Amino acid sequence: MDNRCDQNNRMILMMINNFECQGLCCHRVRIYNCSGNDNELQTLCPDCTEPTPWCGITKCNVFGCNCDECRMQKPYTRIDNLAIPEIDDNNNHF
After folding, report:
1. Is 0.90 topped by the overall pTM?
2. 21/84: higher pLDDT
C-alpha cells in the first residue's frame, strides 16, 4: 500500500475526530423581546447582550465552539433562529 495514502487517511480521521470534540457552541441568535417590544427582532446573545464575538461565558474557539458554558436565555424572550447568514431565512426556525 502507498504510504502517502495511509498518511492522508490518518489526517482525515484526525480532522473528523477534531470536529467531534468541538464541545458546546455558543452562537448569536435572532431573538424577540430583548428591548421589551415583542415585535422587535434583534441579533444578540440569548441573554440580550452583544456577542464578544461569541456568546460563551468562558472563552470559545475561533468557531464559537468548545465553550464551557453559554449565556442563558432571558425568560421573557423568544428565539426565532440562529443568526447565521447561510440559514437566516423564514424556512429555518427552531
Report:
1. no
2. 84
Mean pLDDT, to the nearest integer, of 68-74? 93
Sequence-ordered list of residues with C-beta below 8 angstroms from that of 56, at least 6 positions apart, any chain = 24, 26, 64, 67, 68, 69, 70, 71
| Cα 90 from Cα 70, distance rounded (Å) | 25
Q: Which sequence spans correspond to the domains of the chain?
A: 25-94
The full DSSP string for 48-59 is: SS--SSS-BSS-
21 CB-near residues (< 8 Å, 6+ apart): 66
| Residue 79 to residues 3, 70, 94, Cα–Cα distance (Å) | 50, 15, 8
Task: Report residue 54 as a C-alpha cell.
Answer: 461569541
The rounded percent of the chain whose pLDDT value lies above 90 is 49
